[in-house]
Amino acid sequence: MKKGALLVVLLIGSLGISCTAMTVASPPQPYESISQNQFYDDLAPYGRWIQLNHYGLVWQPLDLSYGWRPYSDGYWVYTDYGWTYESDAPYGWAVYHYGRWAFDNSFGWVWVPGYEWGPAWVAWRYGDGYVGWAPLAPEVRWSIQGGFGGVNIEVGIGSFAWCFVNERHFCDRHIRGYLEVPARNVTIIRNSRNVTHYHTDNNRIMNGSISREDAERFTRQRVERYRVSEARSRGEAGFSPRNDELRIYQPRVQQPPSRGDARRSIPNGREVNPAQSRVVRETPEQTRQRHSEEAKQFNSQAENQRRTLDNVHQEQLSQPKAKEERQPIIRQQRTEVKTFNKDRSRETKVLDQRQQRENREVRQQPREEKPQRKER
Q1: DSSP at 275
Q2: How far apart (Å, rounded) are the C-alpha atoms in residues 221 and 216?
Q3: Could you report the per-residue pLDDT of 179-224, keeping only the tens digit for each?
Q4: What is the pTM of this model?
Q5: Which 3 state secondary structure label does DSSP give 94?
Q6: Kind and range of the H or E element at 303?
Q7: Are 266 and 272 in contact, with CB atoms under 8 Å apart?
Q8: Which of 183, 182, 165 is nearest to 174 (CA)?
Q9: How far is residue 354's CA from residue 105's CA, in Å, rounded to a whole number?
Q10: Cβ distance 195 to 46 under 8 Å?
Q11: Residue 203, CB-side half-sphere exposure with 13 Å CA sphere
């Protein structure tokens, strides 16, 4: 601590003034500059890179569970940047702080790389006892000068993309276990309002969508504010040993040249490096077995969500209500069931198309020729 800062602290203490969470944030100074190639190299072990005509080079995590959506496998921390998303996923430093997410009808969720770091690139909703967030679409762009430029912040966000949680659990580190079934989002969206608010302060992108005071009120607990420091590498990122500081890895990303990248000439819908495909490392029998297990797990997870939805509906109707009060609830439940069936059909289609693509890869793999028997 510098002498001037120490003198201020001693003076405040001598006057009997209490101050908590006093932080002075300075503009971020990234320690290094990286190229988009580092995105490619660092994320390749955890997913597949695909060329899509309407987005260009995109990345997709492997082995996504049924109902997965971006920003559903981490938690929220209040920092010098406002609400900042933290995830234990090895790719979280990139895909939850740079770029955008999109749902492709053939491939499912894909991440579109970007160059501007943010505490989290999501839209926010609040109301009726719920807090929700959803990934911004690639069409929603940010600039330091003009923010989002007045566009509809929720453009391209389907109801299934939202993560809603009861407001009491918003600050829980294990928030994934409290997320509502996506089929219920249609009702919660109707009863909530858009509260998305990002701004810049001293060249920092700030996420002020939910105020710290409001979060303390509806969670009924103190919300700590963590100081932010720059991590020189991904290995340094995380909470400090004293748990009072969050070290963030946020390098400056260089935009690639418009020409000269051979990956841009790859046909639409093709993986960038087929040699890294799981199919190449599997025998045809192993691929069939994996597909069978994926289908079983998919159906099991879908049925679990349906049971959860049914339990919520039963609880809603178990409370004594007048007939005129029950009818709107029943109509709402029917809408949620239809939404569940629609969501399941969408994810089933994505799974089927991926497995069909992999089956085509299996058929295209060169077969080992069996040695011919010599005639006597």
Answers
A1: G
A2: 5
A3: 999 999 999 999 999 999 999 998 889 999 999 999 999 999 999 9
A4: 0.85
A5: helix
A6: helix 284-318
A7: yes
A8: 165
A9: 11
A10: no
A11: 5
